[in-house]
């Protein structure tokens, strides 16, 4: 197997869906697999001039690539079928291309009701956390137990570990959800999600570590966060930035809190994920507001232009391909 992995390096909302969509378009992938999260994730994708927000369905369906909801995901069955019907009604062939790992877990009515009581963390209240808790408490419901999902079920090992008659091996694009700052182990606990958002999440979903070719780490040239903790500091430019960047949650619609790029957090995330291709999205937004800033420890750096900031980021990762992206076509 050959595998490429797309991971978020901040707090979600970095543009992983756009990157996965573009890679699926340009690559020779036999499969695309979502490896964590559920309907608490929203990937905004522009396909043939239309805007789509996916929650469960991997981005490979837009190009007719078999697309797997992996074992590290949790599924709200009703919301999944609603998403499928929405995509199908817009000409995207989901039924012919969607696969679901037999051992993915199910979000139940009980999980949703329990999550709606959550007030401390600021979750999406979609039932993800309670579903993951029951998974690890060994009393969860799996996809194989749900008759409505039978037509999609697949054994991920059998699906991905093969060699066809020509000797061609599977080439898998692994699509992550959320981001490093929300990872259950590496994020700002307890203000985290309940799944593994790192490259390790792809490995846990059946991708051997030695099959990984490229790890695409995705960040924004500034940071955003949706949740209950105080993240945004006082800076009059942030309201302008929020408007220019349309910084509202794809799942909840909540305004995202804004912060400047943190180089120390970015370096940590790049190293622990094994990133060898770094994509920083929304460079055009900082160009629009004519403000380029970043934190280096407790020092706020102010750059004269985008090129100066790009050179500084490049100096942090001299051996990594770094792209300051202003549109998905640059990826």
Protein topology:
Elements: E1 2-8, H1 16-26, E2 31-34, E3 43-47, E4 50-54, E5 67-69, E6 74-75, H2 77-89, E7 98-101, E8 105-106, H3 109-115, H4 128-136, E9 153-154, H5 156-160, E10 171-175, H6 199-204, E11 212-220, E12 222-225, H7 237-244, E13 257-262, H8 263-273, E14 277-281, H9 283-289, E15 292-296, E16 299-303, H10 306-316, E17 321-324
Parallel strand pairs: 1-10, 1-11, 2-5, 2-10, 5-7, 6-8, 7-9, 11-14, 13-15, 14-17
Antiparallel strand pairs: 3-4, 12-13, 15-16
Helix pairs in contact: 3-4, 7-9
Question: Can you walk through the features of this model?
Answer:
- The structure is a single chain.
- By secondary structure, the protein is an alpha/beta fold.
- It is 27% helix and 23% strand.
- The chain has a single domain (2-330), classed as 3-Layer(aba) Sandwich (Adenylosuccinate Synthetase, Chain A, domain 1).
- The chain has helices at residues 16-26, 77-89, 109-115, 128-136, 156-160, 199-204, 237-244, 263-273, 283-289, 306-316, and strands spanning 2-8, 31-34, 43-47, 50-54, 67-69, 74-75, 98-101, 105-106, 153-154, 171-175, 212-220, 222-225, 257-262, 277-281, 292-296, 299-303, 321-324.
- The strands form 4 sheets. It has a 9-stranded parallel sheet with strand order 9-7-5-2-10-1-11-14-17, with helices on both faces.
- Strand 15 (292-296) and strand 16 form a beta hairpin.
- Helix 3 (109-115) crosses helix 4 (128-136) and helix 7 (237-244) crosses helix 9.
- It is globular.
- The mean pLDDT is 93.
